[in-house]
Write a structure and sequence with these properties.
The structure is a homodimer of 224-residue chains. Chain A is an alpha/beta fold. The first copy, chain A, is 37% helix and 20% strand. Chain A is globular.
Chain lengths: 224, 224
């Protein structure tokens, strides 16, 4: 098993997270590092989606991953083993989200020189992470088919703050009452500008479009 | 569509939630009302499981349900329509959990005289609700197969505080990498005394055992 750096994240001391997040965003802009904040419920498929996407992109841009979890380091190990890229584990020690200062604690443990894209896999939680700006350029989320098409109705803030909604596990749609058109319309209610990309991380279906979206986002941001 | 009472829950002013929860538990004991706190990730199947279970029990004991959600009242309406029992919706207004005081705000809006069992469907979240004692006699949770068998490793507190772990959506096990024996052993790591009941709320498989467990829990508590 690969040896993975595990960072025990401390509670933030900054009072103004929004200002701190803006500062972090600015600093990362100066260094040419695009930060993506990826959120979802527990078990929606964040790690599997990342592995597929990273393997399509890693020869085009340099990527690093920070895996946040309350406990365990299985995800950082999985990413490292399946993609070979720089991957660290952040332990939140019971905390249900990451803010900008906590994100910075992770970034301080990455080799950022030459890195184009850092993906932060946030704590599996559809509620709290949506309330805290991490300093990321963009927020993305995964909704998986077994969770149900009504989630944008029940977790409005999460869907409002995300620029990209990935609908995962579309291969099992026949076994669940999940109406993708209804789901799209609920997402639009919360965020008319959100991009929606259906995928199956397990088989790879749709992941190419996701990789393209991400590559394009990073390139556009770098040249602006 | 049924008209459902929707309660906008206010933030608690009590500083000592543990003491407040003990007080609430005591009060409910005096009134003969058993409170069950049901938790899970978003979309694990709490409402469907409740409907199945309540329909097996409603002629034996008197049950009421409080459906907590950040927004929407779809769940309380569903429960009411499918079971006919007393059902109210609690809006947490963005708050990610319920504590004892917030639970009390809900209970104040129920007709408790003659009610044997109140089930609180907590906010869909595997992190924060585990940190707050609601005043319930027992905590139960649902883990659904699509979320993965490793969840007890990643969300240790939730599994530690639950007396009952319901494993839902076992009908789709063939389509997911979910090892139920491995999952049982992870659950035991967190809580050796936890009862584990596999079910499929959609088809009803296993729900009889769940209903029996609950009926037995309420009866034993009433006579002690």
């Amino acid at each position: 098993m690969e040896r993975i750096k595990v960072i025990e994240i401390k509670k933030s001391v900054f009072e103004n997270n929004d200002r701190d997040a803006d500062n972090l965003r600015q600093e990362l802009k100066g260094r040419g590092v695009y930060l993506l904040n990826l959120m979802s419920s527990p078990g929606a498929g964040k790690t599997t989606t990342l592995i597929r996407t990273i393997n399509l992109l890693k020869d085009k841009i340099r990527i690093a991953v920070m895996e946040a979890d309350i406990d365990s380091d299985v995800d950082a190990v999985k990413i490292k083993e399946a993609t070979g890229i720089q991957s660290i584990q952040l332990h939140t020690g019971g905390m249900c989200h990451l803010d900008a200062e906590m994100t910075r604690q992770g970034l301080d443990n990455l080799e950022l020189d030459g890195t184009d894209l850092v993906i932060l896999e946030n704590v599996g939680n559809l509620v709290c992470p949506a309330e805290f700006d991490t300093g990321a350029v963009r927020n993305a989320m995964i909704l998986s088919v077994p969770e149900g098409d009504d989630k944008p109705l029940k977790y409005p803030l999460m869907f409002s703050v995300c620029d990209l909604v990935i609908i995962n596990k579309i291969d099992v749609q026949p076994y669940f009452d999940f109406d993708i058109d209804k789901c799209r319309s609920y997402i639009k209610m919360r965020n008319p500008a959100a991009e929606v990309i259906p995928i199956c991380a397990k088989t790879g279906e749709g992941v190419e479009r996701l990789a393209e979206w991400l590559l394009n986002a990073v390139k556009t941001w770098k040249t602006n």
